[in-house]
Design a protein that fits this description.
About 15% of the residues lie in helices and about 30% in strands. With about 425 residues, it is an alpha/beta fold. Bound molecules: adenosine monophosphate and magnesium ion.
Length: about 425
């Protein structure tokens, strides 16, 4: 059970941080990496903390360092099933015979004496009895008249795991800002920690604007399309561990838009909208933010995805993403996701994994923007990665995204790509 120690009020934006301190529209477009860095730098993690049990902690971010109160392992133990003996008794050549004086089981140590020339049968994980210091695996031992006969060629100290080999008592096992993966849950359990202090989940409101939008499950009026962005955003946010407040489709009126922002801002840390942020467009999102909050347009040299609006409304951060469904996903992964991770208090820098793959198809690309085409990559019979695009790459063609398993990342100055050329691919694994 989670015990929340905070109120529902989101943490206010810290004084001095102005996420709108940015280049105005019309200036030279920013490189994606720089835009991302600037945005992440403007974000202060949520203050709230709660204590959650390990089973509820997957994906959460540690609010404080976790120090170990134990050594892992706590006792010298055997890495093999075999025989524990004193290494000095190992034969330099030929064989040596050892009398077996007892057994050390995992969890049930041998407590008798072991003298020189004697050995103890030992199981994996069992305490290595004093004064022995070496384990010979059972496959290397011959039984002759009830004694263990061992040949030369072994090393003193082999197959013994020292105390604290994994984690030492007093060490920081996991630092504040660590996002908890399954392996890290295991590490916490290995030091006996059953519950951890994590930052509270960030709360994110999502709404769509546009009179052309209907929600899934509703009938479609002439000229309308179904809103897909709210649903893909919902999925991406849940994956990251955010709490999502779905405010639906907001009608294109000044009053409805203001009301949506006002109601969201008292409940959430971040508001994400899609569509209606192109320059010059008569839309109420921009107007509302200009009048009652702060908004800046980030012209980022990426495709799909420019421009992105960033700002705040009251205490809530604001991201205005482009309307096209593929643009929403691409800008979310490359801009909003790192911002949200910063909001969650995660301190590990985001380092996307890029692989080199041979492009099987011709790619159309104009220099001047970093492009994220959608592809399917696989290993060919010779073990080399080969990638092809997922059909039509229009920013509105969501199937290009749903059928892909990677982005094909084309650098700023790249032109058309001919088949057979090597390109960078960013696998979706771990992302989507
Ligand atoms: P906009 O940025 O508002 O001009 O929208 C660009 C394109 O994306 C238009 O074709 C819109 O109809 C479409 N679009 C905007 N919002 C959504 C949405 N929530 N779901 C699906 N398509 C959308
Ligand atoms: Mg629109």
């Amino acid at each position: 059970m989670a015990t929340t120690t905070t109120t529902r009020n989101p943490d206010p934006l810290p004084a001095g941080v102005d996420p709108c301190d940015l280049p105005a529209h019309g200036h030279k477009a920013l490189h994606l990496a720089e835009a991302r860095e600037r945005i992440v730098a403007a974000i202060v993690p949520v203050e709230g903390r709660e204590t959650v049990s390990l089973r509820s902690a997957l994906g959460r971010v540690l609010a404080a360092d976790v120090r170990s109160t134990v050594d892992v392992p706590t006792h010298r133990n055997s890495a093999m099933d075999g025989y524990a003996l004193t290494g000095a008794d190992l034969p330099a050549s030929g064989t040596a015979s050892f009398e077996i004086v007892g057994t050390s089981w995992a969890g049930r140590p041998y407590e008798g004496r072991v003298d020189r020339g004697q050995c103890v049968r030992i199981m994996t994980g069992a305490t290595v009895p004093e004064p022995t210091d070496t384990v010979v695996m059972q496959e290397h031992v011959r039984m002759v008249a009830g004694n263990a006969v061992i040949e030369s060629g072994h090393r003193i100290g082999q197959n013994v795991r020292p105390v604290g080999e994994d984690i030492r008592r007093g060490d920081v096992a996991l630092g504040a800002g660590t996002a908890l993966t399954p392996a890290r849950l295991g590490v916490l359990a290995s030091i006996g920690i059953g519950a951890v202090e994590v930052r509270r989940r960030p709360r994110v409101a999502v709404f769509s604007t546009g009179d052309e939008l209907a929600s899934a499950g509703e009938p479609l009026a002439p000229g309308q399309i179904y809103d897909s962005n709210r649903y893909s955003l919902h999925g991406m946010l849940l994956r990251l561990g955010a709490e999502v407040l779905d405010l639906g489709v907001i009608p294109d009126t000044r009053e409805d838009t203001l009301r949506a922002f006002e109601s969201a801002a008292t409940q959430v840390d971040m508001i994400i909208t899609s569509g209606g942020v192109s320059v010059g467009e008569a839309d109420y999102v921009t107007e509302t933010l200009e009048r009652h909050g702060r908004i800046g347009f980030w012209k980022v040299a990426m495709k799909p995805g420019k421009p992105i609006a960033f700002g705040h409304f009251g205490p809530a951060l604001f991201f205005g993403l482009p309307g096209n469904p593929v643009s929403v996903m691409v800008t979310f992964y490359h801009v909003v996701r790192p911002a949200l991770q910063a909001l969650m208090g995660a301190t590990e820098p985001e380092t996307p994994i890029l692989l080199r793959a041979t492009c099987a198809t011709r790619l159309r690309k104009k220099p001047g923007r970093q492009e994220f085409q959608r592809g399917v990559f696989e290993r060919d019979a010779t073990g080399k990665y080969v990638v092809r695009i997922t059909g039509h790459q229009g920013a509105g063609v969501l199937r290009s995204m749903s059928e892909a398993n990677c982005f094909i990342v084309l650098p700023l100055e790249q032109g058309d790509v001919e088949p057979g050329t090597e390109v960078d691919v960013q696998p979706f694994a771990g992302l989507v």
